[in-house]
Amino acid sequence: MGSASSLRAAAATVAVVSCLAVSAATAGATDTSGTIPNASPVGLRRFTVTSPPAGRPLEAVVWYPSTGGPTRLAGDNPIFVGEPAAIDAPISPGSHRLVLVSHGHGGNLFNQAWLASTLARAGYVVAAANHPGTTSTDMRPALGADLGERRRDLARLVAWLAAEPEWSRAVDARRVALIGHSLGGWTVMAAAGARVDLTRFRADCRDHPDLIACRIDRDLPIVFDAEATSTPALPAVAAVVTLDLGLARSFDPASLAAFAPPTLVIAAGTYGPDMDATLESGYLADNLPRGRTKSVSLEGAAHFSFLGRCKPGAAERLDAGIPAQGPLCQDGGADRASVHARARSLVVDWLDRHFGD
User: Fold this and answer.
1) What does pTM read for this prediction?
2) Sequence spans of domains, the chain
3) Which of 93, 103, 124, 284 is the most exposed place for a label (fewest CB within 10 A)?
């Protein structure tokens, strides 16, 4: 994955130093390609959630099974390869299972498009939103410091879908599955009921000061309003998937031991001291209930392997920037497409097994 110093350089363009990030300079995702001739069964729509609280609109996207239509590469940009989708295509008939995806610190709603499109092909509706204050186009510390807002973003996203007539018919919003990468992995665990103990976390950081999560806290510091509740509440959580999550050591071990949703913990097999998977994903897996948890380390994967595939020459273009950001395209020995293929298989199997009909 590269040295700790290269990881710090890769993330230096965001408001705080973070390996849980994709910088605003390179990760802004737009639909830039022309029309693709062949129809796709995957549809895509973008929308904005404007429900309270005021001043926190959510730019969001939904991937869904569709009846097809002209497609474009969604999320395609000079660095990352987009995913084909039929923009605003009709939704396939029926009531579909709902999945929410949370991006990492400094990332955006297209970071896991490679996984969302696969799930849509498998019959799921997949929604993702930019988290204000911790997204590539909005890194304001005043909005990003209270990480509790991230879990409330997910509840607002479900509420919007449930209130829209077309989507309320297309999704079963009574149960959801949650997927998150990096800080997004922390977000979905917190949203599903894992209890955050910042006092314990800060004491732990004295023993592990090099972890990126600890450095973020020193820079912000992190706020988590444990008394605040989602408005409205998040529905029942059928399953959780974390992709090389960070900030895991902020979770109280007792709450993890009692964590109810079946949880798939996927870790990068290659890591440095900044993002030590044994201290993050390993801590999570060690404390979750054995019978409801599956832990997998993907050999050859690095932290950023869970972003989209990089285009030829992207790493060189990133390295030429100031600061250099090549680690966004660095993997741990395996090519990113193979990492994605293994992760897709694991995630689809996990959701199919635990979501139920």
Assistant:
1) 0.90
2) 4-355
3) 93
At position 356, the amino acid (one-letter code) is: G
* Residue 195 burial (C-beta neighbours within 10 Å; 0-12, 13-18, 19+): middle
Q: 55 CB contacts (<8 Å, ≥6 apart)?
A: none
Distance CA 215, CA 221 (A): 9
Distance (Å, whole) CA 166 – CA 170: 6
- The confidence score (pLDDT) of residue 231 equals 53
β-strand pairing of 71-74 with 96-102 = unpaired
Q: Right CATH number for 4-355 from 3.40.50.1820, 3.30.1340.30, 3.30.460.80, 3.40.640.10?
A: 3.40.50.1820
Q: pLDDT tens, 181-240?
A: 999 999 999 999 999 999 999 999 999 999 999 999 998 899 987 655 445 678 999 999
Confidence bin at 242 (pLDDT 50/70/90): very high
CA distance 45 to 69: 13
Residue recorded with tokens 């309270």: 52
Distance spanning both ends of the chain, measured CA to CA: 39
Confidence of residue 37 (pLDDT cuts 50, 70, 90): very low
What is the C-alpha separation between 92 and 68, in angstroms, rounded? 9
CA distances in angstroms from 73 to 86, 87, 111, 211, 233, listed in the order given: 9, 9, 13, 35, 34
Q: Which of 17-31, 105-119, 236-250 has the lowest mean pLDDT?
A: 17-31
Check whether 11 has a pLDDT greater than 80: no
Residue 8 has pLDDT above 80, yes or no: no
